[in-house]
Amino acid sequence: MATQLETKGWTRDQMAARAAKELRDGYYVNLGIGIPTLVANNIPEGMTVTLQSENGMLGIGPFPYDDEVDPDLINAGKQTVSELPQTSYFDSAASFAMIRGGHIDLAVLGAMEISQSGDIANWMIPGKMIKGMGGAMDLVAGVKKIIVVMEHTSKNGDPKFIPHCTLPLTGKNVIDMIITDLAVFQRPDHESPFELIELAPGITRDEVRAKTTARYVE
Amino acid sequence: MQKIYPNAEAALEGLLFDGMLIAAGGFGLCGIPERLIDAIVAHGAKDLTIASNNAGIDNEGLGKLLRTRQVKKMISSYVGENKEFERQYLAGELEVEFNPQGTLAERMRAGGAGIPGFYTKTGVGTLVAEGKEVQVFDGEEYVLERGIRADLSIIKGWKADESGNLMFRKTSRNFNAPAATCGKVCVAEVEEIVPVGSLDPDCIHLPSIYVKRLILGAPYDKKIEFRTVRQREAA
Description:
The structure holds 2 protein chains of 2 kinds. In chain A, 14% of the residues lie in helices and 22% in strands. Chain A has a 9-stranded mixed beta sheet with strand order 4-3-2-1-5-8-10-11-12, with helices on both faces. Chain A has a 3-stranded mixed beta sheet with strand order 7-6-9, with no helix packed on it. The longest helix of chain A is centred in the first third of the chain and has 9 residues. By secondary structure, chain B is an alpha/beta fold. Helix content of chain B is 20%, strand content 23%. The N and C termini of chain B lie far apart (57 Å). Chains A and B meet through helix 2 and helix 3 of A and helix 4, helix 5 and helix 6 of B.
């Protein structure tokens, strides 16, 4: 049996569950690939949240049953999905008009680096094979609220919430909230600094401070 | 005016030339004009620039045109899942212009709508905006992006009537609709061609004016990149 002592920080699922607390009834939401996708499993009972897929779908259903798989029905991660009674389809230009036009309430995505002024880098590492930014630049530029869910440090233990991004940017001054395995940071507007608003279980302010080089308010 | 051609080779006759710009529909392998891609491979036109969200995967979709080295440049938003692409790109044999996905879709839409350029917030302050005009509107910065006018559009639809009115199915609509509008000529392949009057005029996704040539591409063996399923709960 797990003891209290073993609980330290949030798992990927718990980070997704924390992000899901930001959902509100009636929200239209775009979820990125990876941990953000797990947010879909944590939509509170009784709350209506409509998921948008940038390849042209509003109202993403769960993965299909084996005998209902349809090659014409995929999400932006190119995974097969199903439709819901309220689903609608549209083309890519209309999809990004929706995104760029500020009609989507919330986007949750991953990141390699976030700067203290809300810049995000998540699409390329110079010298490595570049796969492309996909829809990430459009999402961070156009969606009303942007939440980043990421590990607090890189695999080498380097801070990812830093003074200035070292990697090429996906968007400048666009992030509203950062959820890591250690803590949650938020800012009320794009002129204010981020504030540490929550610690994961077993995590201290000192530990967060030691693993963060970005300036933030405690 | 006969728009229906017997096959993809016939439909592309006189339209292909070296160094041309082709706009292609599809997202991943969903809704890709595979018969038309095969016919371009068979024709051998080279030094192509292709505007397409993705570049296919190895030996599927536009991946076939990469394997035959017919592509000089890709204008795309995401090109993962393609080893041959990666090899040619890293070897400097293939030029790539990365566009944000929404910017690419809007470049096609705008080009087709007679709009040579548009301002967007997407990419401001990033590599994408380098060398482009930035303009402030209502206190916010926007970058000028150009509309795309292609020599040829190749798209995949679901059903068309004999006049070229066309419907797409589910998420296979994606880039097919904007791509169709931005080419000097659009050639469409579909799964079914029905007599004029069989489709509800209120449910046409792409009006016939955009479809200059049409082929029946069926039967299709549609490929899936990531087959994800859930299990039925035991009764």
